[in-house]
Amino acid sequence: xxxxxKALRKxxxxxxxxxxxxxQRVKAGNPGSLNIQKLKGLExxxxxxxxxxxxxYRKTVxxxxxxxxxxxxxxKTYKRF
Length: 81
Prior knowledge:
The chain is α+β, with helices and mostly antiparallel strands. The chain has helices spanning 3-9, 13-28; strands at residues 35-38, 45-50, 53-59, 65-72.
């Protein structure tokens, strides 16, 4: 089991549905009212904020999206990026 699957198992069903919806919107290029920001000092890594949950992902030049982390916000959330 990878770290993303493990992180999703810790979340409630409602939170998992919200994350799935967010990722579908990001992939489709329709972020709408999502709170998306590029991480400082990094060219291709972004975060989406939904309440206390942070979804950190990398967007490639070709438009592919790789989810790097799904976590509850803490002081350590952004340390490894």
